[in-house]
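Quick sanity check, DDE Tnp4 domain-containing protein:
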Amino acid sequence: MSPQSRMAWLCAGQWQNVLFEPAAKDEDAYQALLARLLYMNAYGFEIHPSPNAEYLAAFGAHNMLVYSCGSLWMSIIPCLVLCSVAAAIARSRTLRIKVLLFNFKNDREMDGYTAIDYLNAIVGTLNILYGTLSYRLAYGGSGETRFPVSVFMMDLVYLRGTQVEVDLRAITTYHEEVRQTYLTHMVLRDIIDPPDLDAANSMDDILSRMTQDVITLRTIETTRYLRERTNIPKSGGLHLAWEYAQNPALHHEFAKMLRVSPFVFHVILNLIQNHPVFFNNSNVPQTPIDIQLAVTLYRLGRYGNAASVEDVARFAGLGVGSVELFTERCFTAIESLHDTFVRRLTPEEKEVEKEWIDKRVQFRGLWREGCVMYDGTIAPLYAKPALNGESYYTRKANYGLNVQIGNAPSNLRIVNISLGMTGSAHDAAAFEWTAASKHPDWFFKGEEFAWADSAYTLDACTIPVHKGPAAKIPANALFDKTVSRLRV
């Protein structure tokens, strides 16, 4: 298909995409400037891919970061929009120099870009996954970010007389403003009131001035907020959870607030509290881990308007950034336990399940070989997907994904998950992509099988209950009733 044909096909479709051809960079500039770069999956959803681990590790192993060379939107921005890149740059303990090299001319997607536009594009991209706080460029720039500009770049390198206009007043940060003002004060002070070199204590006077100047400049550099800040009153109601936990009669109130019982809360806390994400080398200790977990669980238990980060922060008596950070840390710690819990049963664990089945059916037979049960559920989506959206429409009148879950019958522990089929997919079709169906010789041993409901197909590894009208036959009804005592 020729470039002209591809452009016509795209413009006739639903997405109204603009086709980018690298060989056509010298063509006319875009009619509208680029505002944001997104990674999209095949279903039309924005995704946030994770970068290579070595890429992230490099920010903590080197002392210089240079933004260059190449096209801003086609070369640099795609590397910065990836997950965790902004935090890795902002929180690096080794990066001491962060330099932006300006191009000598703009590409067609940046026609008319000034230095301010470069800064806003880079800093805006690095903060795209976060809320906005009032960090701005010194003279009214519009680059509101979570992280201040200075944590991403400290020096700019450009050539005079090029296409990229550089307005030094517009790109000067308030820290730089204050530093330049103090340097001017130092010069004027030494002109108006120079030290008396003939005095006996002249060297002491000079050293005192120098020491004071160094301390002042260092204080300007290390003080995060130089302007007066308005403190937002915070009180919060999270302390109620701890009061509920002390009284067994109020444990149900604890569960309403954090969606788990106090016992389960402490089990999760004990499992994650030693994860490295909760430790750092800062002189300011992290918020206690139990509070971070409580905030995360409270946030997970909210839905709709009540799920806004601002409301969660207001309830917890915290800042919006803290809620996001606590959630990120807790999920990192919990996800690290995946392979510990979501795995196939060991022979010893299978025997425990089989003995539980013997007790439930009150005899020992082939029933005990059904040591796993499968069922499907729907993971609702926020909105109808843009691509093939109808295929996600479920029998529950919403849009979602079909999730197949394999559980151990005795304690409902998840041993296998299969996610990816659309909501309209039948459970029998979705089950074909589970570990039990794709790799039965690995998942099962001997005559082992999985129990399932009537939506599944009878085969060598799955025994479902009967569908009507066969379910009305007395022998089948007795069988189904007994199976119902083994599976949810």
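Posting the structure with no commentary besides this: The chain is about 40% helix and 10% strand.
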